[in-house]
Amino acid sequence: AASRRLTKYYAGAFPRWWQHSEPFRAAFNGPQGRRRSPADWRRPVPGLSRVPRDPLRVSVMIVTFERPEFLALALDNILQQDYPVHEVVVVDDGPEALTQDWRAVGLGRVKYIHLPARMTIGAKRNVACAAATGDVVVHWDDD
């Protein structure tokens, strides 16, 4: 009986999904429905842009503990993304504040918060989330 209900549910849901997926199917399939080759993936698909005209502001939060080399690499990768990053919030609870000025690395988009005492990773994420001002908050590990 349960399998009949699932079959009935998916039979109703699939056509609804399929009719709304035309732009994505066009991106996957080439002209006349043939599968696109790897070389085609580099060409833009008409009607689909890489970044919306009015993109959501994205805040990326990173929690770290005594790993400045991983943090520098993570910041470099985040700031090179195609989608514009509004801000990066770094929360560190190491014994000493990191000496590098992270704001200079991110051209003013990096907020560095040093916590005086050790905290759990969940508490550090809560601090980062409270400091974020973007529309969307994304978690990124420093390693």
What does this structure look like?
A 4-stranded parallel beta sheet has the order 3-2-1-4, with helices on both faces. The mean pLDDT is about 75. The N and C termini lie far apart (about 45 Å). The protein is elongated, with a radius of gyration of 22 Å. The chain has helices at about 1-20, 20-30, 70-80, 100-105, 120-130, and strands at about 60-65, 85-90, 110-115, 135-140. The chain is built from 5 helices and 4 strands. It is α/β, with parallel strands linked by helices. The chain folds into 2 domains: about 1-40, no CATH class; about 60-140, no CATH class. α4 (about 100-105) links the parallel β2 (about 85-90) and β3. It is about 35% helix and about 15% strand.
Primary descriptors:
hexosyltransferase activity; four-stranded parallel beta sheet; Glycosyltransferase 2-like domain-containing protein; 17% strand; Glyco_trans_2-like; 2 domains; 143 residues; Nucleotide-diphossugar_trans
